Amino acid sequence: MPDGRSAVKRRASLRLWLSGSWLALVALAALLAPWIAPHDPLAQDLFAGRLPPFFAAGADPAYLLGTDSLGRDVLSRIIHGARIALTVALMAGVATALLGSLLGLLAGYLRGWTDIVISRLVDIWMAFPPVLFAILLIAVIGTGLTSIIVAIVVIDWTRFCRVVRAEAMNQSKMDYVASATIAGQGRASILWREIGPNVLPTIAALLTLEMGIAVIVEAILSFVNLSISTDAPTWGGMIAEGRTSIHQAWWVLVFPLVVLFLTVLSFSQLGEGLKDRFDPVLR
Description:
By secondary structure, the chain is an all-alpha fold. The chain is built from 10 helices and no strands. The chain has helices at 2-31, 33-36, 74-110, 112-125, 130-141, 145-172, 175-182, 187-223, 235-244, 251-277. Helix 6 (145-172) runs antiparallel to helix 8 and helix 8 (187-223) packs antiparallel against helix 10 (251-277). The mean pLDDT is 86.
């Protein structure tokens, strides 16, 4: 058994190290984008259109990952696109976690009619297809970064609510909650000081998973031109543009697609690593 636990811990540490390193690199690139991007992501040069990446014949050393059909630098657009992707991931993820976790804690600890109302609301909400619901919301409230964040929060709060509710129910049966009740602590005090901290590792793991989902949703909305301006350097927009010229300039599609895949995978593996690392059985 100790060997099994050690193996799980090693795998969790490897996941955390690899995924954390990639996400730190993406975050650093997003923060330093105005200084490290070799070109203006919006600057067009039709004479430099569809230049191949540095390792292909006919490449221009000034454009390491080549250019698109309008002569815009692919590397610069990927770097600036990271700012949009991570902004949506962070803001939407945190807002979703706060709303869903709060409702989940209330439902799981208070029980009774509070649990019934919140649970029925979750069931109704989850009956809608999430991607179609997001597209409908964006069509109603309009495009823009704020609209994307609001749409993600409105759609995904149910995931946090259901998981946190179940965890809060389990924690409320523990001896430390009974001891706090006997000691005269109020329900609000028990919820925030006793149950809340013990549910926090689960929330942290869910948050990283949600951030990956937010990146995917933003890319999907960009792909169908329902994100921010069509000229803005978004990964989904670059993939949509590259799809139309895959035979003439494959790099316009492949490079942002690889970055998107690695980023979403890293968020997922970070969440799994945190889950394994803070598993109560392993602790």
